[in-house]
Amino acid sequence: MSEEKNDRLESSNGDVSRRQFLKGLGGGIAVTGVLATATETETEAHPAPEPASASAVQRLRGKVRVRLNINGQEMTALVEPRTTLLNTLRDHLDLTGAKKVCDRGSCGCCTVLVNDKPVYSCMMLAVDAQGKKITTVEGLGTPEKMSPVQEAFVEHDALMCGFCTPGFVVSCTALLQKNRNPSLEDVKKACSGNVCRCGTYPHIFEAALAAAKKMRGA
Amino acid sequence: MPGWKKPSENSVLGKPTPRLDGPDKATGRAKYAYDINLPGLLHGMILRSPHAHAEIESIDASAAEKMPGVKAVIITAKAGDRMRFQGQEIGAVAAETIERAEDAIRAIKVRYKVLPHVVHESVAMKPGAPVVRNNDQTNLSEPNRTERGNVTAGFAAAKTISEGSYGCEVRTHLPLETHGVTCRWDGPDKLTCWASTQGVFSVRDELANALGIQPASNVTVITEVMGGGFGSKFGAGYEGVICARLAKAANAPVKLMLTRYEEQLAVGNERSGHMKIRIGADAEGKITAMEATIHGSGGIAGAGVPFPYIYPVENVKVEQRSVYMHTGPSRAWRAPGHTVASFLMECALEDLAIKAGIDPLELRLKNDPTPMRQKQWREGARLIGWERRNPRPGQGPLAGNGRYRRGLGCGAAIWGGGGGPGSQCRVTINRDGTVLVEIGVQDIGTGTRTYCGMIAAEELGIPLKSVRASIGKTYLGYGVPSGGSVTTASTAPAVKRAAEAAKKSLLEQVAPQMGVSPDDLECAGGKVFSRTDPAKSVSFKEACARLGMEGAVGNGTWARELQQSGVAGAQFAEVSVDIETGHVKVLKIVALQDGGVILNPLTFKSQINGGVIMGIGMALFEDRHMCQITGRMVNPNMEFYQIPGTMEMPEFVSVPFENPDATGVTGIGEPPVIPTAAAIRNAVLNATGAYVNTAPITPARVLQALADARRRG
Question: Does domain A148-215 have CATH number 1.10.3720.10?
């Protein structure tokens, strides 16, 4: 079990480690065993086959234990069938990089990669995310070893308050994975599902184009 | 005491510098109030009135209290209470998950006696309209008058008199991180609160006061990073206080962050402003008189704008009134009142210039006494290519005869941006050669943390990576609330003085060992060396190793001479208007902004861009739609309350305008948002001949104005 350093900014969060928090929830990375406080029905949710057939429909109620592949690790969480992937990441697995802003698919701040495609995690249920490869902004790089996109965001000041930043980083990463040489227009389109209120767009464009150039080795 | 060095002498300050917290933000590690997870954390949610105007008949929370996972229910309203806007608070719950908190809110039964409401200015102003405030006869406040000179004589001296009506709608702040806090009690009267705020100390004092905690320092407020405020996030608010109360009642930490729906209704907006004006100019284009009546609404709160704006007018009669309505109260804004005042003033000026047959830029140059802005007007005109402007509205080679018509427009900004006293900074030079800057002030996304580090690095002649800046905590020295663009001018001087004091202590401690007088020592280039005998030199790190256990510590407070107030700005817009659909596309914005001594040109530029983009939102999209039939907001979300996105971005020419006479730092978070909307409106007029006099400039308004223009011929 790896321990994320989530108190880099200062010691203010220092008395609360991610490990402690996850322990309290009875969830976390696959090693977690039994749930101490389960008083309600617990269902095991299975990944839905694709495409879903009528006979494969599973009725879920109470709480369900979901198994998710996040940033290359198997993780489990005890959630409700209605719990979104976003709330699961943030409230159950302490992966708070994806932000909750509109919670209805109109801002892009909760964008994660699901099987390498950018997806609004507020618009996907955790039970539906099982069996898929999920990558959050935390999985793209660390403050010590940032991805080229993350590095370019910092260098070009493509962030101000920073609340939209994870979503933009994920969208730009998805773009550069399929288009090594994007135009300014390509970057604008790839990020058209993300919004920023501080007004960082021009610097985001610069950062995405610079990252593409760097990744091409140009 | 020394001032700021000249830009050419700096090695850290004045250089484009990426943010210290950039890596944490870009990798999702930065922890906002919304991201704080604690063992046993509960999730809070607030119950709000769905009605614009109603009396509560009864509240029954018994079902909610019994629901599984619900740990606390607090009802603050009572039967007989009057609800005066959709979104007014009634009570709150805390539950194990956010989903269950939402269930519990739905399970609270409130019976309302629904009362007649007014949510449009025009309806609220009608005689006999339901009155919003208890002791008033009408919804119109007493007038606030500005009168000087002799208006009658002024108009008599005018060669041209222009009359018009102009207006701006209500906008919402829409910070991406909603208002809210995470609260944990560390004892019966000891509270830790992670807040999304522009003022950690104002939140602390409000919490201590509301919860009866003494001393106030028993409340610790922490804001390492926060997701935007734009004037709406100074206090703890209902959400902060109720969260602390829920945490106490449940005996567990609680996170309470508003949903987007609540955010749009209840925690602030920018007031509307609607004006009727007569304005006159003499043959030279000098304004001789103005007479205006203005009304605006801040919902249940008041309204008002600074007017006349920017351009001094000798003979003035302005009458302003607030219109009260059953909508959420307004709060401060990014340049509160100024964006509205700018729109009203610059539109009126533009139309006056056209009527007088004078180049609108020429008219501004004639009436604008600010030397800095005179330079900015001329430089901006050069950068946008003002000579390409259509000589008459809608007619010229730039406009052309096709479906897409191009035009140019401009507008101006004014702001203070000076600082104030109170800030207390401590700089500690450690024995390992690292440096810690500590000051309680929060960084609302402007780059405060970064320049705090840069100032210490510059002063001590060391690289920025050796410096850590610890900010955003009320147990550190006082820092001002981030409003009025005062943060930098209040904070930076204290940091500089603290760094100087720490340096003095370092030099005094190492001077005897180096066999020189402290006055002879200097810190630069990572070294401590003698000015008179360069052979006597040690690395900064070696010097630090010679310090005592306590290192070298310096404290600093605000220094008036290190800051200054008063900035100017000018902006030019080029737009393309689709005359078939009424769609406006902004092609280019030239924004010139001076700002005293510029600490970090990279974040300075980000502030200019950010202001302009918010200005584009005001110009084209942002409008809080209220439904007069239901009393409810039609767009309390982000799909129908639109802000500019990537596809709406023009080309930016953002120019940090050097001020060679600057001796002090100045904040510029606000001025760049002020003139954008007016510049765009005037460009639309130049492109098409359509007078769109109300922002936002929607396609419907453009088409209407085009039709009006055709009718006039």
Answer: no
